[in-house]
Amino acid sequence: MIMKQEITDLTIARAIFAAWVFIYHVDLYLNFSAWLGPFAGLIRHGYMGVDGFFILSGLILARVHPELGASLRAQWGAVKFRPPAFRLVLAFWGKRLARIYPVHLATLFILGLLVAGGIMHGVVPRDPGRFGLPALVQNLFLVQGWGDASQGAWNYPSWSVSAEWAGYLLFPVLWYLLSYMIDYVAIQILIVAFAVMVLITLLHHGSYNLTFSLGLVRFFPEFIIGICSARFVALCADMAALRRAALWGGVGFWFIGAATGVDGLALLGIWLVLFAFLMQADTQLPPVLGQRPLLHRFGLLSYSFYMSFAVAELVTCQWFRHQGWTPASHGGLFALLMLGLTLALALLLHVGVELPARRLAGRWLASPPPPVHAKAG
């Protein structure tokens, strides 16, 4: 098994999740889901694309960093602390921060320019309280999704990035502890995490649409589900019948759960599909979905796309207000502007910010090569 090779199916899944969340937010303005009749829930529950991201985050971290738990265990032992282990954790945190923070900071800067420029010209944004200084400080420190915010502030989709940053901070400990356990314990932990998610639906009217003040409650069980999935995938990856059952059962549960508004069933379906993709990759078989170059490229762009739609929303809504229009009165134009502006900004951020930052972090945080000892003459 090549642990660090990219999984094309999972990259395409990122594209699907990002598109699902985007369509959900456009529907909040246009309510075009009403045209779908009994399938309206497929759009109205698009917020669950974020739940897919949370599972995917834990799964990919555990796959990309299989050595982290073993290395920490080897260096720390049972109770000892050693500097090399701390440097390993710092390098992990540095790479993950470089993955998310530059784009996050760039969107805050763009929003700041737009809001300041609008105010200078007498255009006040809707809900101006979202752009206050306390909320900006929270966003700068990536803690806006840790339970202290009551509304979306600044680039509001970044609450989920804040939650993921909390997961990145704890991942070395979680992976370190899980590395001590046998694979079957990971299965038991996964079952407990799903039970927690069921409890959340019972306490919150059947919905996982928990943001801002309860973001971490939603995030951590799903993050742990992803980590545990990578831990025990080798136990069942070679079972072709199980891979097919997970894939098609997952698609069915995902579709039925979203359409009927049963978020717990949709979550189970999302996990089964992702686990089927992971099993397929573990056996080094070709991707289930094939290559799909366009979807694959969109998957690589998905983080910048996800972080861009709130900026596009602000610009589009302000322009509509200036024209005296409502989104519903010019629905096609509203959707087209949202999509075009989001894609344009996402490409700019991906090429000009995300990729360069990741390359720089890769060079700065690379492990030093082992010393070369000259042979005695």
Describe this structure in words.
The protein is mainly α and 377 residues long. The protein has one domain. It has helices at 8-30, 41-44, 49-64, 66-76, 83-120, 133-140, 159-179, 183-203, 215-232, 240-260, 263-282, 293-323, 331-364. The radius of gyration is 22 Å and the shape is globular. The protein starts with 7 loop residues before the first helix and ends in a 13-residue tail after the last helix. Residues 369-377 have low confidence and may be disordered.
Major sheet characteristics:
none
| Assembly of the depicted chains | single chain
Proportion of residues in β-strands: under 5%
The first-to-last residue Cα distance is 42 Å
